Amino acid sequence: MALGGVVGIMAGLLGIGGGGIMVPILTALFVMQGVPHEHLAHLALGTAMAAIIPASTASLLSHRRHGAVRWEIVRSLTPGILVGTFLATFLAALIPTSGLAIFFACFMILMSLQMLANLKPKPTRNLPGPAGLGGAGLGIGGISALVAIGGGSLTVPFLTWCNVKLPMSIGTSAAVGLPIALAGALGYLINGWGTPGLPDAAMGFVYVPALLLMAPFSILLAPVGARLAHRLPVAMLKRVFAVMLMGLALQMVYTVFNA
């Protein structure tokens, strides 16, 4: 419940998905529960992906009310995102826990460095055609499935680089986060189905009790984070959050290699 609440507040405060927080902490919790080493990262990624579904839905509805979603971009990105995310879960199932942990840590450290430096791509081109957007969706979905993110850290920079205004980029990214979460959760559920050694309450690589406890609190507390965003120094908090993400990523690698 506490983890879900923290994820919701951070999502509302900084507009960042919760995978970077959920995956390392879930990995540590699964170690304490005696989950076999070979399933640690897969179970954490699958559970985090499923937990993103309700949060993505709430975010999508909010941005839709404000008219901040470019639906023609969503339609062009979604087929590639669905295919890329779903297929990447099959790739993840073949990668050992140690490899997934290293990939996750490297991606989160790069994302944190980008946040610390506040690097933003300059709008230098227009949106590609349907084929180009489909290819972009394929890449965004594939990486998102391997690190359990809603795609915002990839979709927003891509869209702003293509001259889409930032508010529309954020709203459109929120909309494509839902198919990412759905395809990712379904893929991890299928790939883990019937795998021996998982907790009794797991459905594939999705641990249902964690999902049911995290999701409501992330939804309830996301508006609190959004309100705090107007009162707190968000730029400074973003830097602190970046350092925290680095620490969590490194902690996940340490946990996996010492489990």
UniProtKB/TrEMBL annotation:
Membrane topology category: Multi-pass membrane protein
InterPro entries named among the record's database cross-references: TM_pro_TauE-like
Keywords assigned: Cell membrane, Membrane, Transmembrane, Transmembrane helix
One Pfam family of this chain: TauE
Keyword presence, Membrane: yes
Subcellular location: Cell membrane; Membrane
DNA repair is among the record's keywords: no
Chain ranges passing through the membrane: 7-31, 43-61, 73-95, 101-119, 131-150, 170-190, 202-224, 236-257
Gene Ontology cellular-component terms listed: plasma membrane
Major subcellular location class: membrane
Similarity field: Belongs to the 4-toluene sulfonate uptake permease (TSUP) (TC 2.A.102) family.
Name this protein carries in UniProt: Probable membrane transporter protein
